[in-house]
Amino acid sequence: MIIERPAAFVTPDFLIRQATEAWEIGGAASLRHRTFVTEQGIFDTHDRDAIDRTALPLVALSTMASEADEVVGTVRIHEETPGVWWGGRLAVAPDYRRVGRLGAELIRLAVGTAHARGCRTFLAHVQMQNVPLFEKLNWQPLGRQECHGHPHMKMQADLAAYPPVLDPARGWMALTRRAA
Fold first, then answer.
1. pLDDT digit string (tens) for 84-104?
2. Domain span at residue 87?
3. Domain CATH for 166
């Protein structure tokens, strides 16, 4: 007799917002560690750096009974020089990668938040397998670069495609569906 393991429960709606609570910030750091250290091996022991002291952590939160439950996606943004912003460390938990739009919603929040804060140029080093997603989201490739020993594409967002997000801590509810 073969017993099938049930598929992981994946909530259909998510909160997309700036991490403000300690559990959200800790959950974002934990997800980054699992993604970039444990799973991908990009970093040996941790992915934290000096940028984390000033970066805004943004998160996708699963919900249970309409309440925030777990950090299932994250990205950070920071202003490098006046008007020039960077996004980085975009991560979505493995059980949620097939859920439509979580990465795109985090990117929308990232660029929109920077746009509201005076961003004139928004950049990111994107892992090569994610370049098609960013291109669909109105980003232009600027050239291939090695980051932490792995190939990335330096990309720039078209700010006209991203309305300013004035209150990233409030964020929004994203209704999604599981991809086939």
1. 999 999 999 998 887 768 999
2. 13-175
3. 3.40.630.30
